[in-house]
Amino acid sequence: MIEKTYQPADIEARMSVVWEDSLAFKAGRPDRRDAAPFTIVIPPPNVTGSLHMGHALNNTLQDILCRFERMRGRDVLWQPGTDHAGIATQMVVERQLMERQQPGRREMGREKFLERVWQWKAESGDTIINQLKRLGASCDWSRERFTMDEGLSKAVVKVFVELHRDGLIYKDKRLVNWDTKLLTAISDLEVQQTEVRGSLWYLRYPIEGKTFSPEDPASFIVVATTRPETMLGDTGVAVHPDDERYRKLVGKNIILPLVGRKIKIVADEYSDPEKGSGAVKVTPAHDFNDFEVGNRHGLRRISVLDKEGCLDLLDNEDYLRDLPEGAARFAEEFHNVDRFAARKRIVERLENFGFVERVEPHTHMVPHGDRSNTVIEPYLTDQWYVDAKTLAKPAIAAVRLGDTNFVPKNWEKTYFEWMENIQPWCISRQLWWGHQIPAWYGPDGKVFVAETEEEAVSHALGYYVEQEVITVEQGREMALDRNKREGFITRDEDVLDTWFSSALWPFSTLGWPDHTPEVKRYYPTNVLVTGWDIIFFWVARMMMMGLHFMKEAPFSTVYIHRLVRDEKGAKMSKSKGNVIDPLNLIDEFGADALRFALAREAAHTHDIKLSSQLVEINRNFATKLWNSCRFAEMNDCVVPEGFEPAKAKEPLNRWIAHKTAEATREVTEALEAHSFNDAAGAMYRFVLNVYCDWYVELAKPALGGADGPLRAETRAMVAWARDESLKLLHPFMPFITEELWEVTAKRDGLLALAPWPLKPEGPTPEQLAMLAAAAGPTDPLISPALVMPIFDHADFTDPKAEAEIGWVIDLITQIRSVRAEMNIAPATLTALVLAGASAETKERAPRWTDVIKRMARLSDISFADRSPDGAVQLLVRGEVAALPLKGVVDFAAERTRLDKEITKADADIKRAESKLANEKFVANAAEEVVEEEREKREAALARKAKLLEALERLKQAS
């Protein structure tokens, strides 16, 4: 019995237990052993995280695909798991230690600290997983993985060692994004560009051989900079080769103010003649672009900042080399001064000596750490790198050849741009939590990379014996006694970038490097669902690693979804206070409502604008579905054994079979094309407009009539169409559909394992029946629903039934529209004249007279050769239907009202078009504001079109 009120929370809790107890989502079920596999790997959320709206969208779309393919008979593996999230997790535990006034990481030591992190993971690490279950994610939770599980760690070490052996991992001194608070290199994804109001200083750099004078432009060259403190590390000034102002100066030296170092003027296209003075200082050790300019011209790299962002000048051989006498005193004065304090003091000194030409206010983007919120420094340091350029070549080819396809396809351009301009990938992090780099150093700094410490020790001892650094006897003693080799060989303290381990996710989760059955069956995966922002950080790196180690691309399709924004189109952020918590929406409206809202809005072409009102609309849809199923139950609507919808006789019942077939084809084709919004939109229209609003309403007379063939057939068809709707809706709204299936379908077996309305790929129903018989009736893994004969109604059509019922619906719809346009009160009944009706219309109209009169608020329906005077004419499927409204509607007053409404619509259109034609407005206004104006214009145009149509009808009537 269906409860009177739809209560999502009760249903969700109950259905979660049912699915879990029945092992519904387990990959490799006995009933699927001969089925084609379908694999998706979850983008592993951070173990520190909680469900946000991006997770909700991403996992809803993955779940739709998995439930869809599971119902199509595939052996589905949706591989779940979490990422260890190096920086984020380490910060959580360190903050916890600080709040509890316990010893910090350094005081605790590495071993004890890592024990503490594992303890935190055991206590709190399942939060995000439990939240995904609340969303309805149908992962195989028995296979949950963690990027620092023993098996995955084994894969990480093997990959590092093999890539190092092949020369694809190496150590180098390059610039990295350096967090001066966390004291580690970080990835570009962990850098947020923040708009900052600052200053642009125009500085005079004296030309060698000329007497410097602020009044003599020939004695200096002007450079513009936002970072005067890094000028201490300048080793050149760049000008554009075509800039006539500086052509004669190229190759000459200038004197670095305050420092006195001679630096060269070089010609490089990086300098933009239109910006600033056209000359830029080159600081290769403190700017990524300058690093490349310096490489092109052989300029020195002088690092003047330390790891904490303070000036590092004393004992800095790179800085002190070739300085004139007296410069050391300057180094002593500024040594260990914070970078921003140094900026003020250096600017004061420059002003005192006349080196500042002018200062302008300047707003620019400054990189900040997304966790530390400190300004990120380009920092020159030794790190481990992957030769990404070499690994990228097969990954580029795989997409070009179509082995992997992006949906939408336009994202391939972004992929190619990134991959074809790829830089070495910095994979080392100065953290303790993570995969420690499997590299050990000997006393002279020689590195030994190995899968185990014992292996590294063996290599090191062999090497140093051969080099006669130690004797053979000492080597034997060290090999046997750890104490004797302590300090002789030490392990690299750094850990690997978390993207390194997650790059192996599609195959490490399946047991690689061991040759497991899962690797053979489920790799490569089918679809990856992810956001555009990690195409480079995750997608590209999985492509590189998968192709290198597995010799196949890790997935055939990459579906890129858009962002979820707030209702005004603004990007959600804590600082704006517009973040929408998906768990709050689930609490208020239910997981199904949130999922369906996201799916309906998940278009390829634009971001999602989400609001609680949008989710509420979809909650109302769920309520409508619930009530329609209650109505069917109260009218004893069940599908009798052996019922065949194709053999229905009544036009209305054949019509719903026809419309169900249409919906089935539309939803299936849309899901196959990953057009989630089209699929969800098709189901919204079918359930709400076709099934609830029309079919159930039109079926009420038959359901309420006397017992007989018509009533029996209609009851069966109402129940059948309901069941098919539940199947088609299940991937989108799993909780409510599973509940209604259990209560109303009166069958054994879960809806999650029921067959999709189109015949599934893989084993035939007969083969599945044999499997079920072999397993026995008590086997909980077998769904009897899977072995039921499947009515493949997707090919069913009945144009005649569609024409008849379509005419009824179109007629009622148009009459209702006119009544609304003309402000006719509901209590006022109007007549209808079918003018010049065809024989077909004359034959079908009497069958539907009572229904049309009731639903269209009519007093009478008659036939005539032509439309009477004073009637509004409607064209319904090529025939005229007339509403005599003379005496019912004041035509003159109505015309005046419509004219006013049209004038108002014109004003709204003009206002919006004026803004959109303003180039400054479009260029400077926030994206969501511009989009709002476009929407206003489109709404006003649509409103005007309807008003003009109503006005034209009035003119015809009068």
Task: Give the C-alpha Rg.
Answer: 36 Å
Total count of strands: 29
Number of H- or I-type helical stretches? 33
Low-confidence stretches: 760-791
Strand content: 15-25%
| Broad shape | globular
In whole angstroms, the N-to-C terminal distance is 56 Å
* Number of domain units: 6
Q: What's the arrangement of strands in the largest beta sheet?
A: 6-5-14-16
The averaged pLDDT comes out at 91
CATH topology (level 3) name of the largest domain: Rossmann fold
- Per CATH, the architecture of the largest domain is 3-Layer(aba) Sandwich
Largest sheet: 4 strands, antiparallel
Motif ('KMSKS' region): 571-575
Motif ('HIGH' region): 45-55
Coiled coil: 895-957
Keywords: Aminoacyl-tRNA synthetase, ATP-binding, Coiled coil, Cytoplasm, Ligase, Nucleotide-binding, Protein biosynthesis
What does the secondary structure layout of this molecule look like, with pairings?
Blueprint: H1 8-21, E1 37-41, H2 53-71, E2 75-79, E3 81-82, H3 86-99, H4 105-108, H5 110-124, H6 127-135, E4 145-146, H7 150-165, E5 169-179, E6 184-186, E7 191-206, E8 220-225, E9 236-239, E10 253-255, E11 262-267, E12 279-282, H8 288-297, H9 317-320, H10 327-334, H11 339-352, E13 356-369, E14 377-386, H12 388-400, E15 405-407, H13 411-420, E16 425-426, E17 428-429, E18 439-441, E19 447-449, H14 453-466, H15 472-480, H16 482-485, E20 490-491, E21 495-496, H17 498-502, H18 505-508, H19 517-522, E22 525-531, H20 535-550, E23 555-561, E24 564-565, H21 582-589, H22 591-601, E25 608-609, H23 612-634, H24 651-672, H25 676-704, H26 709-729, H27 734-744, H28 765-775, H29 799-821, E26 830-835, H30 839-856, E27 858-864, E28 871-876, E29 879-884, H31 891-917, H32 919-924, H33 927-957
Helix pairs in contact: 1-27, 2-22, 12-13, 12-20, 14-15, 21-22, 22-23, 22-25, 23-25, 23-26, 24-25, 24-26, 24-29, 25-26, 26-27, 29-30, 31-33
